Every structure is written in C-alpha cells, then in structure tokens.
Amino acid sequence: MTQTTLLQYEAPWPVHALDWCKSTAPGHQSRPRSAFRLGIASFSEDYRNRIAIVGLQDERVLVEDDYTDYPDFVTLVEANHGYPATNLQWQPASASGFSWTGKAPAAELLATTGDALRVWEYFGDAPPASSAYVGRQPTGGGHRLTLKTALSGQSKVQSQSTGPPLTSFSWNEKAPSLVVTSSIDTTCTVWNIDTSTAITQLIAHDREVYDVAWLPGSTDIFVSVGADGSLRAFDLRSLEHSTILYETPAPKSGPPASSASSRLPTSPLLRIAFNPADSNYMSTFHMDGQDVQILDMRSPGQPVIELRGHRAQVNAMGWSTTDRPTLATAGDDCQVLLWDLAAYTQTATSPRTANSRLNSPRPDVKKRVVSDPIMAYSASSEVTNLAWSPQIPGMTMNTGHSTAPGEWLAIASGKSIKALKV
C-alpha cells in the first residue's frame, strides 16, 4: 500500500495567504484528520474577498492513491473578509494552554491582516458520521468561523475600519496574546489581542514596512523589513533606538534620485523569517529578486549565505519546524526549492539566549553562495505562497493502514493548493 505524497485542493478563487494549522483540534488529538487543516485567503482587487478553512474529506486519501471518489480537501467553513488578507495565521501551538478572556475552550483562533488586524474564532465540530456528501461540507456540519475582534491604528474598531493597510504580522509563540503588525504607514504596532489594546506603536522604517517577525523564544525582540531596503531589530525594553542588521546595497544602475526626493533608490526587502531551530539565522529576499539572503545576527551587515536557484522573482519562503535547518523557497519560475543548510550554518558554542541584547558579534564571515537545492518541485504556474505543517506523527487508520511521520509543505499556485509530503 503506497502512502500518498501529494494532496490537492482547488479553491473557487485565486489563493494568496495560506497557513497550516499548528496543532490538532481540541478533543481530536486521536483523529489524524484534524492535523491536516489549512487556512486560506483569496486575492481579488475588490471588497469581496473570502477566507476559508479546508480540511481532509477522508483520512483514506493519506494511504490510498486510488481513493479518488472525493477531493482530498474540502471547504469546512468560509467567511467574508472585504479587502484581501495580506497574511493569515493559525494560533501558535502554545495558545491552547493560554487562559484567554472570553474564549470558549473548544474554539481555535486565527488572525488576518488587511485594513485591520482581525482575530477569528473557529469552532470545528465533530465531523459528520458519514462522508456521503460530495464537495463542500453541509452548512449544518457544525463548523463556525466568526470575527472576534478588529484592531486598527491603536484601537479596537467597531465598523469597517479605514486605517492604513497592514502588510503582515507575527504571532508570538511564547506569549500568544502578543501580535506585532507592520503597516505601509512606516509603523509597527504591538498588540495584546486578549485585551484588544495596543501596547506600543513605533515608526520602524523610513518607508513602508512589508514584514515583521518575533525573535523565536523572545517576547521583547522583533525584526522588520521594508521599502527602504533595511532589516531592523527592535527591543521593547529599549525602544529609543533600533539596530540595523542589514541594508541592501544601492542598485548599481538606476535612475538618479530626483530633486523632488532626496531618497536614493533602494531595493525593498519583502519578507523576513527566522530559522526556528537556530534563531541566529534569518532569511529575507528583495522585491523582484531571484536570490534569497541568509543573515546571521552575530555578524550583521551582510548575508552569510546566498541561495541562488530561482530563475524568476522569489515570492515566498518558509523554514521547516524540524531541528535541521531546511528552507523552502518559491517563485514566479513555477519552482519550489528545498534547501538543506545544515552544512553552512554554525551553531554558536554558547547560543545567544533570547533575553540577551542584540550583541554577540562574530568575526566577519565570508558569504557562501549555495546553488544546489536538495529538492525541486515544478508547479503548473507561478507559486505565490507556501506553508509548512508541523511535524505530524505517524498514525494508524481504522482500516489498518498506517502512515509515516513527517512534514508536509503546502504551496499556492493560482487557485490550486498542493500539499507535498517532504
């Protein structure tokens, strides 16, 4: 009996934001199905966007390649979102043990950014006993997705908000009530989503901020990237200054800065992501760039590794959650590349603890160029986003079949989502 290595889903709309659930559903720890849930969001340039949760139609799709009576994934529930969601994330795994104010124990939280930071409550009821339905779940399936709160500017908003668009956010793993958002208005805002209050708002960059990420294990330090081409670190304990970890080199050729603006042309940085296995390392890439830069916090200023494998602009990247430093990248060349960086990353002899300040420099390290990914997957069109699953344990079905443990990688390409067993 072969195990499935590819699961597929066709959405009714182009998919932009995408995330794999971080933990099984409350009370469903023994059901393999609930580890395979994705949150997805549409992208259309109007006010009719949607977010949806999709899940496995039947566990047998994991082991039976010929089990094609039904689609692999079905829509469990969906909701209106208005403007497109720029980012969507499930609650961190640590959130299930957190004592939230006024949240039902059976509910799971998701968050999205767009014209506001929205926190959603999802109730995934027990699946219907029979799977005789085809396509979408019947609406009586018990799945509910409701808006819990919307936050914009520095306050809670009741109606449709009119704040400057938020580009992204990061959910704190250690303190799941903390979320930091980034905005095109040059600011980052740290929210307590449990009390719906802004803890602090700061001007982070000279221009739009495109992405933000908490330092793993820390509730004080986060980093951001933006249109000014810089990667900066902030410490909530000393906000009077930030640390510039990297600035993109000015383009060699390009229009001279006009007299109306003294800004030099820079290459914006679009995304930032920490390696969860060793938070000294983080990855970023440039707008329209084909390469991915890996930076080491201990030797800021220049990348220590550059990944060169894509033949068109990179759109997305994500680190695996295992102890081995593995990065997935995806781009307009329809390629998803997997990079094993264990041979190139050195773990410090005395790892910098998350509470130390940003100050453990290393001697200058020469940049390594890596151009040989360990895996390449070709999609049928440009790949716009990706998301890793957590490590999913092996499981035995009631049919007697069993699956091996491992990780999956979900990729979005147009209206298609494919989940690849890594």
UniProtKB/TrEMBL annotation:
PROSITE patterns noted in UniProt: WD_REPEATS_1, WD_REPEATS_2, WD_REPEATS_REGION
Gene3D superfamilies per the UniProt record, alphabetical: YVTN repeat-like/Quinoprotein amine dehydrogenase (2.130.10.10)
Q: Which UniProt keywords apply?
A: Repeat, WD repeat
Look up the domain of life of the source: Eukaryota
Q: Name one Pfam family in it.
A: WD40
InterPro entries per record: DCAF7-like, WD40/YVTN_repeat-like_dom_sf, WD40_repeat_CS, WD40_repeat_dom_sf, WD40_rpt
Task: From the UniProt record, list the WD repeat ranges.
Answer: 202-244, 307-349
**SMART domains in the cross-refs:** WD40
Locate the transmembrane regions by residue number: none
Tell me the protein's name.
WD40-repeat-containing domain protein
Annotated organism of origin = Suillus placidus
